[in-house]
From TrEMBL:
Entries under PANTHER family matching the protein: ALANINE AMINOTRANSFERASE, ALANINE TRANSAMINASE
GO molecular function, one term: transaminase activity
CDD domains, sorted: AAT_like
Database matches in InterPro entries: ALAT1/2-like, Aminotransferase_I/II_large, PyrdxlP-dep_Trfase, PyrdxlP-dep_Trfase_major, PyrdxlP-dep_Trfase_small
GO terms under biological process: L-alanine catabolic process
Domain Aminotransferase class I/classII large positions: 140-524
Sorted UniProt keywords: Aminotransferase, Pyridoxal phosphate, Transferase
Coiled coil: none
Subunit structure: Homodimer.
Top-level division of the source organism's lineage: Eukaryota
Name this protein carries in UniProt: Alanine aminotransferase
Length: 574
């Protein structure tokens, strides 16, 4: 990619930018819809069951920027490059670099050997028996075969080709429960220990979030302003709409599902100057304002390590949040899918569950409704395509709620078996003395140290650019810089009928092939930061992954730097 930096990036203008695609999906292009469409005898167009006027308008209104406008444009540029010819030759880059989503293996990050061997043998158990003994021991050593046989026995006849229990394969749920107890320092004999019935295996953490949000989205017996079911002392009262407290910056699945399910998204702002910390006073004010508008907060979403912000919450802050959720009667949804991505010296990941049972009063431990999320897509594993995940319910979640979650899981039949097998590989890795242990530990250390170096390098690179601030990436897979530019850039964006952050990100894509996500996709709209900006200046945010492999990272950073300088030269600060 060095040739791109040295060649075309510095010479070409921004004239290539084409923003027309940004309106796709926001209007009904009648000239495209009517062609070949059924007509009545009098020539009028027959009504369609599914068009932008008739389908669920909540779906139309939902936004998911991580796979939104910028990736759509990037995919079209990718098709142009693959097609070749003069149009491809005219582009100032030779490849698309997808930094818009935490998808490690799509950027060349390798899988774990042990995981893939177990997956292969679960799908085709006869593979090992068909090999000569020497080859069998090399490709499918004893611990791989044992893990496979154990999973398949529990899965039953049909193995990975048959439906499992709706909550998932029993032995895998047992392994998850044991893993979570060990991780969180809870003895298996404790009344607060995870049990098999508390574990729901899911198609990634996204399915778990959808199931929980579906339960929160409302009921026929709507809450009233005083907390009753719509009746107070014999008189009717005002019903309350359900709301969910969501952090800003946020991961957009939460606001998207709120829109689709008719839940009010109650945004609480993280404090950038305090390393994106969460202030209970902010939460309290959001709940108060919501109630004044007829909205009852039902849940608090907390993401740690943060996405897109990368911060790691301190246990003291976590205790404050759990006390708040307990007092307000909220479900605490602990999105901890980046638990294995912590890069701070001297600090380890601490889950809400560990802090709850090690330092909170007994009544909070017993009553707090806590759900913990985990995913095989993140961490050091990065097996996004497997769609493996789970949620663990705390003792404070009622049996009635658990039964309704099981009903939702049953409606979807079961999570995919490949994802379940991957989860088992993650929570029950090779142990010391087993044939796969040394290679597994070597790969684990290499992946962790590489991600740690990349997190530091990307943040330092952004901090060295003019007008850019970037908090440390303490965890997760992203950097979330804020960029300050002058009013000339804002005017150019307005002239193009685009938000400033999108204008910059499209420029970056069409000049370098790097696809990132505008900050507005995470709730941080242009010039809406947590601190002031100089007079005459405008601030916006973007999110990029830290996932390009190390051998490609420096060329990517060089492209980011070159584009930023070119942008500032074209639109100089005031």
């Amino acid at each position: 990619m060095q040739h791109v930096l040295a060649g075309r990036v510095g010479r070409r203008t921004f004239g290539l930018l084409n923003f027309s695609y940004l309106r796709i999906g926001r209007r009904n292009r009648s000239h495209g819809v009517s062609a070949g469409m059924p007509h009545e005898a009098d020539g009028t167009r027959r009504r369609k069951a599914l068009d932008l006027r008739t389908i669920n308008q909540r779906v139309v209104a939902a936004q998911y920027a991580v796979r939104g406008e910028l990736p759509t444009r990037a995919a079209r540029l990718q098709q142009t490059l693959e097609k070749g010819g003069p149009e491809a030759a005219a582009l100032p880059f030779k490849e698309i670099i997808y930094c818009n989503i935490g998808n490690p293996q799509a950027l060349g990050n390798p899988p774990f050997t042990y995981h893939r061997r177990v997956m292969a043998l679960c799908d085709c158990p006869d593979l090992a028996a068909a090999l000569p003994e020497k080859e069998r021991e090399k490709l499918f050593p004893a611990d791989v075969r044992e893990a496979t046989e154990r999973i398949l026995r529990s899965a039953g006849l049909g193995g990975t080709g048959a439906y499992s229990d709706s909550q998932g394969v029993p032995i895998i749920r047992q392994d998850v429960a044991e893993f979570m107890n060990k991780r969180d320092g809870i003895h298996e004999d404790s009344e607060f220990a995870a049990r098999v019935k508390d574990v729901f295996l899911t198609n990634g953490s996204s399915s778990a979030i959808l199931m929980l949000m579906a339960l929160l989205s409302g009921s026929d017996a709507a809450l009233s302003a005083d907390g009753t079911n719509g009746v107070s002392h014999g008189r009717e009262t005002r019903s309350m709409r359900p709301g969910v407290l969501i952090p800003v910056p946020q991961y957009p699945i939460y606001s998207a599902l709120c829109t689709v399910l008719g839940i009010e998204a109650l945004h609480y702002h993280l404090v950038q100057e305090q390393n994106w910390s969460i202030q209970v006073t902010e939460l309290t004010e959001q709940v108060r304002q919501a109630r004044s508008r007829g909205i009852e907060a039902r849940a608090l979403v907390v993401i740690s390590p943060g996405n897109p912000t990368g911060q790691l919450l301190h246990p003291a802050n976590m205790r404050e949040l759990m006390d708040f959720a307990y007092r307000e009667g909220l479900l605490l949804l602990a999105d901890e899918v980046y638990a294995d991505n912590v890069y701070l010296d001297g600090r380890k990941f601490e889950s809400f569950r560990r802090v709850l049972h090690s330092s909170m009063p007994e009544e909070v431990q017993e009553s707090l409704e806590l759900v913990s999320l985990y995913s095989a897509s993140k961490g050091l594993v990065g097996e996004c395509g497997r769609r493996g995940g789970y949620m663990l319910l705390s003792p404070g979640v009622t049996n009635e709620a658990r039964e309704q979650l099981l009903k939702l899981a049953s409606i979807m039949l079961c999570p995919n078996l490949g994802g379940q097998v991957m989860i088992d590989c993650v929570v029950r890795p090779p142990e010391p003395g087993q044939p796969s242990y040394e290679l597994y530990q070597k790969e684990k250390l290499e992946r962790y140290e590489s991600l740690r170096r990349r997190a530091h390098r990307v943040v330092e690179a952004f901090k060295s650019m003019r007008g850019v601030q970037c908090n440390p990436s303490e965890g997760a897979m992203y950097a979330f810089p804020s960029i300050t530019v002058g009013t000339k850039a804002l005017q150019a964006a307005q002239k193009s009928n685009m938000p400033l952050d999108t204008f910059y990100c499209v420029s970056l894509l069409e000049r370098t092939g790097i696809c990132v996500v505008p900050g507005a996709g995470f709730g941080m709209h242009s010039n809406e930061p947590t601190s002031s900006v100089p007079n005459g200046s405008c601030r916006f945010y973007l999110r990029t992954t830290i996932l390009p492999p190390e051998e490609k990272l420096e060329p990517v950073i060089a492209l980011l730097r070159a584009h930023h300088e070119e942008f500032l030269q074209k639109y100089p600060p005031d």
